[in-house]
Design goal:
The protein has 205 residues and is of the alpha+beta class. The protein has helices at residues 21-24, 73-76, 126-132, 154-160, 171-175, 182-188; strands spanning 2-4, 7-9, 33-36, 49-56, 59-64, 68-72, 88-91, 95-105, 114-117, 120-123, 141-150, 164-167. A hairpin with a 2-residue loop joins strand 9 and strand 10 (120-123).
Amino acid sequence: MFNTGNHPYLAVPQKQTAKQFLMLDGQQLKGSFLVAMPSLSGDFFEQSIILLIEHNKEGAFGLTINKVSEYQLSDLIPQFTTKAGSEPVLVGGPVAVNQMFFLHSSDSIFAGTVAINPHANLTSTDDLIQQCAEGPNPEYLLPVLGYAGWAPNQLEDEIIRDAWLVTPFSQDILFTGDAAGKPQRAAQQLGIDLNLVGQHSGRDG
C-alpha cells in the first residue's frame, strides 16, 4: 500500500512472477512515462501514456494522461470559476474512478503535495481546491479521475514482455499539446515511431 498525503493507493493484485531486473539494478522508474505498446490493443490502456508517480518494491502507481473524459473540471467541482474550470478532466485509470487527483507544475505547493520530479507535482487534497478555485492557479493544472496500480513485480513483468515502452519525462508532453498525440511524442524521444511497431510486440507465441 502506498500512502501519499491522506489517500491510500492500493496496487491491483496479481501473481508475483516477474523478474526484478529493474529493482536489482537499483533503477526505479518514478517520474518516467509508460507508453502502451500495440500488444495492449483492446485493453483499457490501448494507445495510452502513463506518468509513473511511484515505483518501488511494493509496486507502482501512475496516472494516464491522454484519456479525456466528458467532463470539465467545473462540472465536477463548481467552485472552480477561474480558467482552470474549463480544463478537461482526464481518466487516470480503472481504479478508484471517483477519486480526484491534480497533476500540476512545481511552481505551486499545497498541503499534501508530492513532488514527482523537479517539474511536476501531485496533489489530492482539498487544500488545492480551496486555494485555486477562485485564486491564482499553478501554471499548469491537470485534473485526473482514477489511477492505475501494479502489484510488486507486476510492472516489471509487463515491461519485460514489451507491453510498455519506458520513456523520459517531458514537462511539455505532460502539460501541453493534443492528448491523442502524447504517446507518439514520448516515443519519439527515443527515436521510435509507434506506427511502425509490430502489432504482436509483447505477445507470447
